[in-house]
Amino acid sequence: MPKFTILSRVDAYVDYTCTVTARNAEEAVDLVYDGLVEVKWEAAGTEEFDAVRMSAVDKDGNDIDGYSRGKG
After folding, report:
1. Assuming Cys at both sites, which of 22, 35, 59, 61 could form a disulfide with 28, CB separation 3.0 to 4.6 Å?
2. What's the confidence (pLDDT) of residue 61?
């Protein structure tokens, strides 16, 4: 199964990423968002935002298939 990088925006200005193995990007986001897999989060830079959001991203940091969970 492929590995996906998941981007989490939870704290006021800090991005976190983790890697998860799943069948597709949607499943990867769901597994992490619902806490169904144990992951190790790593700080990945800063970005100003207001809402909580998780999405699978490619190597350039772009959303995969536009699928995300949480507030937009």
Report:
1. 22
2. 78
